[in-house]
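dumping this here before i forget
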Amino acid sequence: MYISRAIEKRFLDLLKFFPAVAILGPRQVGKTTLVKKLRGKLTRESVYIDLENPVDYGALSHPIEFFNSVADKVIIIDEVQRKPDIFPVLRSVIDSNRWNGRFILLGSASPDLLFLSNETLAGRIVYLELTGLMFSEVRELSSFREHWMSGGFPDAFKQHQQSIRHEWLKSFISTYVERDLRILGLNTSSLDLMRLLQMLAAQQGGLMNASSLANSLGVSSPTISKAISFFEKSFIIRRLTPWSRNIGKRLVKSPKVYVRDSGVVNYLLGLSTYEEILKHPLLGHLWEGYVVEEIINSMGDDYNFYFYRTQDGAECDLVIFRAGECIAAIDAKFSPQPKTTKSMAITLQDLKPRRAYYVVPQNHTIYSISENQYVATPWQILRALKS
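structure:
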């Protein structure tokens, strides 16, 4: 069963204006499925190249000749991170016969890990990120509880048998740390990488402290910092930076770190049922991570996202800026009736957001509990912010 993705229309629109469009995201997130589903909507015939297939990889041994032989067709190149030397060739080929939508590139790494391809193809390429399934994409198929439990990888989400989902996630993470990161250029021990991922899950939403993590693993701080950078650039973790400006207060400068997919977090923590999530001591942090990912993934590129924390301990989980203005301050509360907090009052005073929200799992409608402070679900907030 194909699940429609929110970026479909934007992807098809961008093909009309750029010679190359890249869809980036973690492995198994549905990039190939999405493009194959939309091939019928392309204005020209297309050719599909999978660089994990040795035959297809060999076809690009002489890339200019190959591209010239299909010069009138859309060329889809999957797992493009396996051949980073293709980008300078693409520039030459595009410039010699430029038409929009000529190349569709699918990759499992950010442009930073694709050997500065953004500079190589400046003005010729645009990037889209395909995230895990958002609740807005599956709400007709699932409750938020099931979505939070299974995560957003389509194969994991669709698998209702927990033991099979567990095996899928085990295989996914094993392949990621033992093979995928090596292909991208990270040579750290796979055992250390697995232990680091488990530690990050156990500190979901915590401040990044490379020295502390290094001491726990018995490796160097630079090794930890490099590994986390690769985790981030291959879409497995999110580093949320603190809002920082001179407002006369000492602010925390370290980023917060989240394992992005809730299903992966639950697997790494050994959580097999929703009831186990509810009993877990990290429940508040797990809800915070789910809320942060849902909101950021749903909002798009026109916004900037931070958290706010002073050295005195005042904190807000997520603050959203647009054009220099704070449009929302968001605090995740796994509680049916949250109360106003001193931290939110300080955030309101310092950042002056249009509105402040306490984010709860269930709520019939947004309601106010104090001046400019409201209680809402993540999806009610998204509707309010986009209206």
